[in-house]
Amino acid sequence: MRVVVCKTVFNGLSYHRVEEPTRAVNEAGIGVEVLIGRGLATTMSTGPDPVVLDVDDQGADVVVMQLPKTVEMLQCLRILQARGVAVVVEVDDLLHGASVGHIGHHMSQNGTAQRVLECAREADLVTVTTPALLKEYARHGRGAVVPNAIPRRVAELPPAYERGSDPAVVGWTGNVLGHPYDLQEMGSGLQQALDATAGNSEFVVVGQKWDLAARLGLRAEPREVPWQRDVDDYLALVGETLDIGLAPLRVDRFNTSKSWLKVLEYAARGVFAVRSPIVEYDRLGLGYRARAARDWAKAITRAVQEPEWRVEQARAAREVVLERHLVEHRVPQWVGAWEQAVAHRAAALGKAAVTVG
């Protein structure tokens, strides 16, 4: 089977949902060849409203479109299917569910989210990261959940709990502007913990802190560690910087559809995680579950004051990642999804031929 994957320009999404799965499938040596590209070569009509006339399928049995957001991609999908090429749409966020103020809300306003939905409706199969996304994008019943995973080379890096640091580093990773409501889920819990462990803890942001201190009412600005665009470098940095990782998320429609990735990354790098009671985090079963400010304060404080307990928890979580959540563990799911898409396309063409006949 030959699979061509058109990846998105978003670096992290491509890494976890295209580049690393492709690497794992190709290295598995199971007779499946996967190629990656930024887009599809097309022939367009001329005139004020050009349309796609032809698509180079590169001899693929399956073409995977990651977040297809344009009318032209929908036109490509239809041409490919008419030719007998199965089309899979890959989605990992509820684009039409982002709240006002969220960095992704503009996708609902400019029609981008609708284009993704339209492509998903006509796809032979939709692959997603969570069951909640499956319900949104694969209401036709043609979908598969392939959860996010971590490359073995990342999970086997020296874990944070072997580094040892004094003071203990409590941290959050991300861009605050991309999480306008999430950090506030900790309430006063973070400041309570920093007060209780003064002199023995430090709070840092790996990424962009912006006005985080004001949002959380912190008495001191956190240290900011610059974001690393290369995902391998970023994941290495997480384990080299943090001892305790925070994963607060507001319980809303967008977030309850999200993957368990942040907590999984913390676990893979040997960082003890404190996280919100989001469905996917609960399903993963890793990290300390914190609902109210007192929970955040209790967990962070204990993790700082009882390093042996923290290390024990972090070590156990990392072992779970190594046993169950490596990218190589997902190979059968990826290949199985693509095979389902091929079967559906063959059945659809057969049905069409019978109808015409």
UniProtKB/TrEMBL annotation:
Keywords: Transferase. It comes from the Bacteria. The keyword Transferase applies. Residues 198-334 form the Spore protein YkvP/CgeB glycosyl transferase-like domain. One of its GO terms (molecular function) is transferase activity. Pfam families: Glyco_trans_1_2. This is Glycosyl transferases group 1. It comes from Klenkia taihuensis.
